[in-house]
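User: I'm writing a short methods note and want a consistent example. For Methylamine utilization protein MauG, I'll paste the sequence; you return only the structure tokens, no commentary, since I'll be parsing the reply automatically.
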Amino acid sequence: MKKMKLFVATGLLTAFSLLHFSFREIGYTSGGIKIDSLRSLYERPVAQWPKPNVDSGVKWKEFKALPEMDSKAYFATMESAQVVLGKNLFFDPILSGSNQISCSSCHNPQTSWADKLSVSIGHDHASGNRNTPSLLNVKERKSFFWDGRATTLEDQVKSPIEAHNEMAMNLKELPAKLNGIKAYKELVKKAYGTDKITFDHVAKALASFQRTLTSRRSRFDRFLDGEYKQLNDKELEGLHLFRTKARCINCHNGQYFTDESFHNIGLTYYKRKYEDLGRYNVTKDPNDVGKFRTPSLRDVMNTGPWMHNGLFDNITGLLNVYNSGMQMNTATAAQKAADPMHPVTDPLMKKLNLTRDEIQAVIAFLESITATQYKMHRPEQLPRDNR
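Assistant:
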């Protein structure tokens, strides 16, 4: 009798497995939508795609492919005097107080211009409290840092150079340090017509170099341009979910998959170990407590760990948290009345009810918008007079 029960149970399990396998094989997604139907919706110009599920009041832009790179123009830019100066400065630890830390210590070309750490490590081996964002496509940003406290690249460079837990360099002393190196004076002369180096020259040159750091075209870009075989069935399902049930497009839209805005997605950790008040530290508006800038998702699978605090190093785990709705730390009406600083999670964050298969489909789509890493070579020699 026991053998008979085991045989029946095994047979049912096998039948169930075959049924599930067949369900995928005959062309359905995990949501029961025919793959052929999805292809008929998306294998056409973007302007003809179905409208995504976007909440009322959300300003969004449709996806747009990155253009083909003009190699001639790119190399001409890289050889321009300002960019050459900026690249040398970016990779030179002389910009730090210890002469040991460069901009590239955290923004490493080998790791998609981030550092693969939860939070940055700087001067005196001090830890920061935020994750290092990638510099890819930084020229397209409208604000900088997770809290948006800088509005230009030239202004942005000041903070990491002078922060004690980063490069710990006195900005007033840096020009004199560089003016003591004839090779740098010659580079500044070519770039700006004077050999008297100021911090303004440093900021402008670093910004000029960073504007050259762009993502390469991904398979999704090629799909957008009509190469429809670039996305497999799983990735196409993920694209559809990204625009519909998963709700990602409410914040991650446009050519760079970001709305350039600020949101509290429920990870403020208010009055707890990892508390970070985010945008509030800039505006002092209680409504901004816990808000952080929406990061671009281009090359996202190359730039983990993720989120402003770098606490998530597993993309499936991260999407599981989003799937929950992120409402675990939002203030009730009574809590908000008692404490105006108590953060309220953005209403865009809602429980998604994604299945495990659907989460994996979204991850597959994120892989398709991640391009092959381009690893820029560091300068073979830095500007020094004794070379």
